[in-house]
Every structure is written in structure tokens, then in C-alpha cells.
Amino acid sequence: xxxxxxxxxxxxxxxELHMDAIAHARQALTDPELLERLAELFKVLGDPTxxxxxxxxxxxxxxxxxxxxxxxxxxxxxxxxxxxxxxxRLVRAQRxxxxxxxxxxxxxxxxxxxxxxxxxxx
Length: 122
Description:
- The protein has helices at about 1-10, 20-30, 30-45, 50-55, 65-70, 75-85, 105-120, and strands spanning about 60-65, 90-95, 100-105.
- It is mainly alpha-helical.
- It has one domain: Arc Repressor Mutant, subunit A (Orthogonal Bundle).
- Strands 1-3-2 form a three-stranded antiparallel β-sheet.
- The longest helix has 15 residues, at about 105-120.
């Protein structure tokens, strides 16, 4: 019974178009190709391990060994996830001698992480 009541709240009782609002919404729509890229980004962010890696890299740069130890995972598993994060341009790598250090790609990634965490904490 509750589902039926909710359905009535979600849908309009009578179809009535608000053309000014529709025109505004259509004008605000972003390029579909760009939205596809955004959807792919959210898919990458949909993995808890990747989120944990981003959090570990939030304030510091770490090598694969450091990340694996921090998260209690194997280096192989971390390397796989870092590859996905690099392809999505969320992290960057920098070789120093025999080590490769990872960091968040830019301030946008840190801000996106912070905003997401703030949103789910409310």
C-alpha cells in the first residue's frame, strides 16, 4: 500500500507541461559525450577500494608498497586499482629512483572527494 502512495507522489496526477521550465532545462543540458565521460568517472568512483586509495592519497603521496601496507592489501591488487585511477585521470604517478609515487591528479580530485564525503556524512 505504501508503494502505491509513493508512486502517486512521484508522478503528476495530471500531465501539465511547464514550457518555460522545460526550455530552461533543455538549455542547461550538457553535451551527451561529456555526460558519458562523467558517468564513466562515477563508475570508477563506485569501487570502495578505489575510494580508500584516494583517501590515502588525499594529503600525501605514496608508493604502491605504502598504499598496500596502509590498506592491508597486496601490491598487485593496489597496482590494478591504480591503473584504473590513472586512466580516469584521478591519480598521477612520478618515478623517483626505483620508486613510483602516486598522488591525487589535481585539486579537483581532492575537492570532489571532500564534497562526496561531506554529502554522505550529512
